[in-house]
Amino acid sequence: MSQTINAAITAVHGWTPETVLSNADLCKMVDTNDEWIRSRTGISERRILDKDKGTSHMAAEVIKGLCAARGIEPTEIDLVIVATVTPDMPFPSTANIASDLAGATNAWGFDLEAACSGFLFALNTGAQFIKTGQHKRVCVVGADKMSSIVDYTDRTTCVLFGDAAAGVFLEADTEGLGIQDSILKSDGSGREFLHMKAGGSLNPATAETVAKKMHYLFQDGKPVFKAAVTSMADVSYEIMERNGLSADDVSWLVPHQANMRIIDATARRMGLSTDKVMINIEKYGNTTAATIPLCLYEWSKDLSKGENLILSAFGGGFTWGAIWLKWSLDHSSGTSDC
Ligand code: UT7
After folding, report:
1. Is 27 a catalytic residue?
2. Does residue 32's CB lie within 6 angstroms of at least one atom of ligand 1?
3. To the nearest whole number, what is the mean pLDDT of the chain?
């Protein structure tokens, strides 16, 4: 009888820039206050990457950290997928640049764009190469330099976002661990509420698009909030229900970190108490594709082999989804502080 092959996480690593942008710092830049930011979003500070570095810098640090954690050379990676909405440039892909910087010279790679759901979409995509046996080791990174597309004169968005990268290795597992199920969704009719207006083929960059600030992230917060609360909670409940998982079966919810109120609503719908939810939004804000793997990295030392995790996200597109996985690492293996 043939064994079922799952894609399992065999290493996890995260990287954040050192520069901190606090709520107090933002109060000096726009008309806002610490109380509004914390009560409406849960954010106290975020990290900002140096101006002269791109997303590939962070992604390369993650690839190097993953190799150190797994005890392998970068040349042993087969495929690198980088989920990002802030590539270094429209082409070549940030995955290609980061692979070069990290020395992953035998890997092919590509970027995947699904905004805040990017890591989930990339994880599911990478898993297919493992399940089919085409590749032995796939590197999936979520990386975003949101500070490169945020307008720091717009108080409605500049308080929300930060820069970070984190990622995992996927390898084959035949013991029933790893990714068990995924539900991924998109609805392009939501694009009007969260997007970047120019810089693509529809509105190429001109002096006018720059003058009109069309190269910054645009968000109409209220409708996004409404859709996020419902969709993220529903899909997280749906993946539990269709797999017969009760709240007791789930060790951790690993939610996209956009807003504490969205995270709370998702946990409530799943019947989970707050102590079973990974939350680091206070320290990093919304780092788009990096939030979920960064949580996995920060909590990895507390996780035990076989624990059920539900990863859940909602983002621009609209895109959203949930992935159920059984954690496959022992407490200290597969993580690195380098
Ligand atoms: O990660 C991808 C998906 N994105 C999300 O999930 C984000 C979803 N949206 C949200 O999280 C929330 O909508 C926000 C945090 C962005 C905004 O919270 P809100 O409770 O929806 O506030 P609001 O936009 O309705 O604004 C309420 C008030 C407004 O003033 P008035 O019109 O009531 O006088 C805003 O002008 O708060 C004002 N405001 C601020 N005040 C102080 C907006 N931004 C700020 C600010 N500081 N930074």
Report:
1. no
2. yes
3. 97
| Active-site residue, 195 included | no
- Give this prediction's pTM: 0.97
Using the mean position of ligand 1's atoms as its centre, give its distance from the Cα of residue 160 in Å.
Answer: 9
Radius of gyration for the alpha carbons in the chain, expressed in angstroms and rounded: 19
- Number of structural domains the chain divides into: 2
| pLDDT, tens only, 275-318 | 999 999 999 999 999 999 999 999 999 999 999 999 999 999 99
pLDDT digits (tens, 9 = 90+) for 222-280: 999 999 999 999 999 999 999 999 999 999 999 999 999 999 999 999 999 999 999 99
Q: Which mutation among 27, 29, 39, 156 tests ligand 1's pocket best, with the greatest number of atoms within 8 A of CB? A: 156
Query: What residues make up the domain containing 41?
Result: 6-178
CA atoms of 311 and 323, how far apart (whole Å): 5
Q: What are phi and psi of 260, to 5 degrees?
A: -55, -35
CA nearest to 166, candidates 286, 48, 296, 274? 296
For the segment 217-234, what is each residue's pLDDT rounded down to a tens digit? 999 999 999 999 999 999
Q: pLDDT by residue (tens digit) across 193-203?
A: 999 999 999 99
Is the CB of 43 inside a 6 Å radius of any atom of ligand 1?
no
Residues 234 and 171 reside in one and the same domain: no
Q: Is the C-beta atom of 35 inside 6 A of ligand 1?
A: no
Catalytic entry in 6, 67, 96, 116: 116
Does residue 59 share a domain with residue 173?
yes
Same-domain check for residues 118 and 265? no
Q: Is the CB of residue 228 below 6 angstroms from any atom belonging to ligand 1?
A: yes
Q: Which residues contact 309 (CB under 8 A, 6 or more apart)?
A: 250, 251, 252, 253, 254, 296, 303, 324, 325, 326, 327
The type of residue at 276 is: K
Tell me whether residue 116 is one of the annotated catalytic residues: yes
Ligand 1 pocket test: pick from 40, 113, 155, 192 the residue with the most ligand atoms within 8 Å of its Cβ: 40
Q: How far apart are CA 254 and CA 134, in angstroms?
A: 28
